[in-house]
Amino acid sequence: MNPDMYMQRLRARTDKETLAVGRRPRFFINTYGCQMNARESEQLSGALELAGFEPAPLETEADLVLYNTCCVRENAENKIIGNLGLSKFRKETKPDLIVVFCGCMAREKEMLAYLTERHGYIDIIFGTNNRRRFPEMLCKFLETGQRVIDVSDDAQTDAPESDMDARALVARHRQYKTGVNVMYGCDNFCAYCIVPYVRGRERSREPGDILREVAALADDGVKEIMLLGQNVNSYGANLKSPVTFAELLRKVNGVGKLSRIRFMTSHPKDFSDELIDALRDCEKVCKSVHLPLQSGSGRVLAAMNRRYTQEGYLALTERLRASVPGVAITTDIIVGFPGETEEDFLETLRVVNRVRFEGAFTFLYSKREGTPAAKMSDAVPAQIMKDRFKRLLETVNPIILAKNQSRVGETVQVMAEDDPPGKNGTLTGRADDNTLVHFCGKNPVAPGELLNVRITEAKTFYLTGTEA
Ligand code: 5AD
Ligand code: SF4
């Protein structure tokens, strides 16, 4: 059946319910994990609005609660399982509450079995690559009352044009910025990472489809676009007419009305000189690169299957800093990968001190069943892991603070956010490199507006200033 037919059936149902109850049924989405999940939750809320639901101000006021999940680390999963408790509890007094569970966690075999058996109050479970069939699943559930569990990997339904996508254009979390998927999945199989198993093989979208989506978003008021993929640097290689990510970036840069373009994530092994040139040349592309290091030790990098060396990584960051003046380089680092020795860890600190990152996400290694690393012996004892984690932060954070302090007195361009003003009416914005800036404005500002802010004070995680 045409997917939009399910939407019409849902709409007819919710219209009837609205007449009977006097208000539209309400939904609430809990989103966990990466920017890609955030964007996919926008698409799902667009679908729900099209089906006649309206957003609930609070989870406890929702008639449908959806969990869009992440399984990249165990603590994320534990938190999600904990948060499910609220729906289980609510369902005891509100049996018609609809509970939907989707995303990466649903694609883990053992997790799915556990959810199916032990969390009987969940009504619908779907995966990552079949989310476009959510309206069909919701329709089936409402019409039959039977649980719907389908986590199939039907990449063909990733066709970008549908009512659901069109609706996502307006169902954004923030009106002035959003993400656009340029590709799905990952083929890199880093030894610790579960993403390739739950999100499937790498598939790039056609540049024409991406550009149409970006242009439609810009027409609808979006000022900042984040181009999203697990590894954007390998974008386009498998298209019928191959296109590089650098070429795509230049095309997106040509879309009128947009103010800023970001992209993530880059894999160091694929970062070409052509992309460095595009980053330098494209005036709307923020001079900011997220370049996960994971480890500074060549031995650990090889065991992680990262396919670059410490020297290669350092050379790339030096090329970036030399070619793109003022570029901000941020990173991800894992401590405690199986077999990581004190010497390996010191190599990571060495790279941190050499590159002097503008920002870093640091993680304790988390064993993920089904990945090659899960079978490795030589687990690093928890106490040593924690100690290394602490020392890593003690190295990373003072560098970030010193870098921020060196910006005091500078005037930086900031895009105003839509956060409510803080005490004394302070506003919030993001600098070109995504650093948070709290500032006092001269006049009322619209979210998405670009302003010049003179920096007066610096902390590790934000800057303070006054509109210039
Ligand atoms: N354990 C800890 N961190 C992980 N990441 C991915 N898999 C794991 C894992 N098993 C981190 C990587 C990646 C980021 C998104 O999450 O640093 O870049
Ligand atoms: Fe995971 Fe590596 Fe793919 Fe990133 S590049 S999603 S870390 S397998």
Structure description:
This protein has a six-stranded parallel β-sheet with strand order 2-1-3-4-5-6, with helices on both faces. It has a five-stranded mixed β-barrel with strand order 15-16-17-19-18. The chain starts with a helix and ends with a strand. It has helices at 3-21, 35-50, 74-93, 109-118, 134-144, 163-168, 195-199, 207-219, 245-253, 273-281, 298-303, 310-323, 342-355, 382-405, and strands at 26-31, 54-55, 64-69, 98-103, 124-126, 148-150, 177-181, 183-184, 203-204, 224-228, 260-264, 288-290, 328-335, 359-364, 411-416, 427-431, 436-440, 450-458, 462-467. The chain has 14 helices and 19 strands. The model has no long low-confidence stretch (mean pLDDT 93). A hairpin with a 3-residue loop joins β18 (450-458) and β19. 38% of the residues lie in helices and 20% in strands. The protein has 468 residues and is an alpha/beta fold. It folds into four domains: 3-157, Methylthiotransferase, N-terminal domain (Rossmann fold); 174-286, Transcription Regulator spoIIAA, CATH 3.30.750.210; 297-403, Transcription Regulator spoIIAA; 411-467, Nucleic acid-binding proteins (OB fold (Dihydrolipoamide Acetyltransferase, E2P)), CATH 2.40.50. The site of 5'-deoxyadenosine (5AD) has 12 residues, from β13.
Query: What is the name of the CATH class of the largest domain?
Result: Alpha Beta
Strand order of the largest sheet: 2-1-3-4-5-6
- The residue fraction in helices comes out at 25-40%
Structural class of the helix and strand makeup?
Answer: alpha/beta
Give the CA-based shape: globular
How many structural domains does the protein architecture include?
A: 4
Question: How far apart are the first and last residues' alpha carbons, in Å?
Answer: 57 Å
Number of strands: 19
By CATH, the superfamily of the largest domain comes out as Methylthiotransferase, N-terminal domain
Can you tell me the CATH topology of the largest domain?
Answer: Rossmann fold
